[in-house]
Design a protein that fits this description.
The chain is an alpha+beta fold. The strands form 3 sheets. Strands 3, 4, 6, 7, 8, 9, 11 and 12 form an 8-stranded antiparallel β-sheet that branches. A two-stranded antiparallel sheet has the order 1-2. Strands 5-10 form a two-stranded antiparallel sheet. Helix 1 packs across helix 2.
Length: 223
């Protein structure tokens, strides 16, 4: 009785099927047309895994990958590149401020400490604005948030309309305008513009500090 021939495969010299080509997730995102939050953070994926996906993968995987890219837009960076602390209760979002509520979170540091763009984005505004002092606003299209920096030591290092990348130095921490002690007043506004609804930045700031390995090591009052 003759033996049946072995099926084609690598063991008998037959060529293997090529791997599926890689396509940028931006193309996946455009095809899927998806919006909304996703259950994964950038730290849940290996470095570089969010940039490419194989063609022909299941639609649910495409959708998840597209949401990761849309929400994360690359690794976020903590905005203060040096020793810092988050201050006391009065520095928190929602604290009473003489007839209005505090719309951001104060991050205290030493004068001149570099300030970084937290994500890729475009500069919407920069200048000197009375009580805001030297200020800067960056719009992140992927997250659909505007990040506002107040009380910079001097004019921002970037200009209106300029594109910035996460981790780029955009200014220095200071105390211009109406402020007490050198600090960054940091806001997250929903949508595009400095007048969008504000949200509490502290949860994001804590998460970005962990991912950037930034530690709140500055003793209170040491500005």
């Amino acid at each position: 009785m003759s033996e049946r021939p072995a099926p084609p495969g690598p063991a008998n010299g037959a060529p293997t099927a090529p791997f599926a080509p890689l396509v940028p997730l931006a193309d996946v995102d455009a095809r899927a047309g998806l919006t909304g939050p996703h259950p994964l953070a950038a730290g849940d994926l290996p470095a570089g895994a969010a940039h490419f996906a194989p063609a022909g993968i299941p639609p649910q995987v495409e959708r998840l990958a597209a949401r990761v890219l849309r929400r994360e837009g690359g690794r976020a960076r903590f905005p203060v590149d040096g020793p810092f602390n988050f201050g006391q209760e009065g520095a928190r979002f929602g604290a009473g401020r003489g007839g209005h509520q505090h719309s951001g979170q104060d991050v205290f540091g030493r004068k001149g400490t570099p300030l970084l763009a937290v994500r890729d984005g475009a500069v919407l505004e920069e200048g000197e604005g009375g009580g805001r002092g030297n200020y800067l606003a960056i719009y992140d299209r992927a997250a659909r948030h505007t990040y506002v920096y107040l009380h910079l030591e001097r004019a921002a290092r970037v200009s209106r309309g300029e594109s910035v990348h996460g981790g780029q130095r955009v200014g220095e921490l200071g105390c211009t305008g109406s402020c007490v002690g050198d600090h960054l007043h940091f806001e997250i506004r929903r949508g595009r513009g400095v007048d969008g609804p504000p949200m509490d930045p502290l949860p994001e700031l804590r998460r970005w500090a962990r991912s950037s390995r930034a530690l709140a090591t500055l003793p209170p009052g040491a500005h």
